[in-house]
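Hi, does anyone understand the following?
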Amino acid sequence: MKFKVAADELSSIAKVCVRGLNSKDPHSQSVLKLSEDKTKLYIFCTTQKTYFKGYVDVYDIEEGEDDKVTEWSVDGNQLKTILSILPSTASIPVEFNMENSARNFIIKVTGNKIKLPVYDVISPYKEEKQEKIAVLPANDFISRLTSIGKLVSTDVDDENTPLSCIHVIFDKDKIKLMGTNGYSIAEEQIDYKLEGTEDTILIPVDQIQLLSRVFEGSEDIVLIQTDTKIGYIDEKGIVSLVSKSSLSAISYESTKSRVSDNRTVTVNSVDFKQAVSALSKLAPKGEKVYVNVLNDKLSLTNVNDDVMNIEIIESNSPEDEITFTIKSLINIENLFTDKIRIGWADETVGRLVQFSTYKTNDDDTEEIDSNVFIGVLIDADE
């Protein structure tokens, strides 16, 4: 059995599909399968938790009398290595030649010859029924999903708890993405009329990373789910599905009601991030940041009494002091826009500080983005 595919097409499709492999999972496998009409080569990469599928066009196929097999389980690690050295920017032909006796694909490209081992057994893999949820701008949705995912706890103690999962809440006219680590909580809302379910789905943080990638231009994705997985289909037809968690969702709406804007200060977010980062580096074992609100500046101090000052853009707060854990601040920084408004209540017990981001309207005016919620608990020992 011989056939050819285009190098650039194989590279772009297969490099996404192999995200579904996991060398530590004994059920991880990569399968190549010709379509019934032998015009497409399907690439399946699956584990117990993932299902990735794509295809490339096939041409110049040659079949022998004994070439009845059209599906092969191949060495996934070697496939990854081959993809890393294949030309990816030109339609150079890549020839696959199946050596039945040696159980190898011989891959020929630009005069070179590479072996791809073929296994004797193909483990069963199930193609579950897919439900369409919504069509969304790819980069915007994945960027939001990734940003919220960075807030999800990666602590060993939180494994297999809802803190280790991003919450995807499907409402009638919006999708909410929520993540928390117990110190900080963030939610982003995407206004969109759904075509499918109204439900809350939890996705483990390690699965989020498999869905994160950069798309070309203004590409859309179709958000889909099955009974056990959630993911999307891109415009190249690649299916990317990862496992859902069976854990119960965190009820957090009451937490959002604990914020207040009795006292607020607005600062440049880059200045704030740089100050927190510097204090963290200067006291790597220190866990706290003390934020002092003065007349014209925020004065941030670590446990070593190192001080970083930030100019206040706008304020309605008297002098005050708030204590945060460094971890709680670093984890929310990726959600900031150019400037942030920090708001809190007068009372000291159980304060939740809200970090509000700004959005720019069509007429270039700015306002607080009501679709983004970021809350941080003050240090319990304050």
Summary: Residues 260 and 345 are 5 Å apart (CA to CA).
